[in-house]
Amino acid sequence: MPVTLHEVTADYPGGHRALHGISATLPAGAVTALTGPNGSGKSTLLNLLAGTLSPTTGTISYERPCRPAYVVQRSAVPDALPLTVRETVTMGRWAERGHWRRLTRADRAVVDDCLARLGIEDLSHRQLGDLSGGQRQRTLIAQALAQRSPLLLLDEPTAALDAAAQRQITDTLTRIATEDGTTVVHATHHPAEAAAADHTLTLAAGHLC
Ligand SMILES: Nc1ncnc2c1ncn2[C@@H]1O[C@H](COP(=O)(O)OP(=O)(O)OP(=O)(O)O)[C@@H](O)[C@H]1O
User: Fold this and answer.
1) Binding site membership of 15 for ligand 1 (Cβ less than 6 Å)
2) Residues of the chain with CATH 3.40.50.300
3) Which of 155, 139, 133 has its CA nearest to residue 89?
4) Architecture of domain 1-68+150-209 in this structure
5) Cβ 65 under 6 angstroms from ligand 1
6) 184 CB neighbour count, 10 Å cutoff
7) Which of 49, 82, 150, 179 has a beta carbon 3.0–4.6 Å from 1's, enabling a disulfide?
8) pTM (2 decimals)?
């Protein structure tokens, strides 16, 4: 599902303008990398796409109504959440099911599939807080994948990971885009990850370069 931004600006309370007149198309079935220095507006753009922030002016058009899946920056998720890997991934089904409803066999099959695709089936009974950074990040991506959203957003999914874990996640994002037709958008500071993406949008001080 392609997403189109037209002349989008975004402001924070106090009048700070974080994005200026952004126009771009994020293609379906492809990975788009958002790059740029600290404070250039990458997270702000992801928040706009996720719908947690509204543009001040301009429009964001989705081909059809959708609830994006969003893997927020690692620092925003407490390390010691008392959840197993499987419970964490299962929470991805709540978006569709509502957490007051029993999960169906189909929901459990989606969770199994997401655990397998991220290679974390063997970790399913481990506590989130006991995992390595790379294992934890794969769990959070599996949770997002379990939402079965056509739009997957990730804010620096490989921050603080070693080169092997980075590569594993980069490869996984490519597979999600090509195999599922998902529109994948991720912010990154790693040149290798940006190079592996199908498209790159580079921001500087809130402007598209
Ligand atoms: N909640 C907020 N209130 C006010 N200003 C904010 C808020 N969040 C971000 N900003 C400002 O908006 C600008 C863009 O920030 P943003 O977090 O989008 O950048 P970024 O490119 O994601 O940075 P980083 O690489 O450090 O994560 C910065 O000048 C930042 O200070």
Assistant:
1) no
2) 1-68+150-209
3) 139
4) 3-Layer(aba) Sandwich (3.40)
5) no
6) 27
7) 150
8) 0.96
DSSP 50-119: HTSS--SEEEEEESS----EEE--GGGS-TT---BHHHHHHHHHHHHH-TTSPPPHHHHHHHHHHHHHTT
Give, rounded to a whole angstrom, the gap between the first and last alpha carbons of the chain: 24
pLDDT, tens digit (0-9, with 9 covering 90-100), for 100-149? 678 889 999 999 999 999 999 999 999 999 999 999 999 999 999 999 99
Q: For residue 205, give both structure tokens.
A: 């001080």
Distances (CA, A) of 150 to 53, 125, 179, 181: 19, 28, 12, 7
Task: Tell me if ipTM is over 0.95.
Answer: yes
Helix (H) or strand (E) segment spanning residue 183: strand 183-187
Give the Cα separation of 28 and 7 in Å (integer).
20
Q: Establish whether residue 39 lines the binding site of ligand 1, counting it when its CB lies within 6 angstroms of any ligand atom.
A: yes
The residues that bridge with 60 in the sheet, in sequence order, are 5
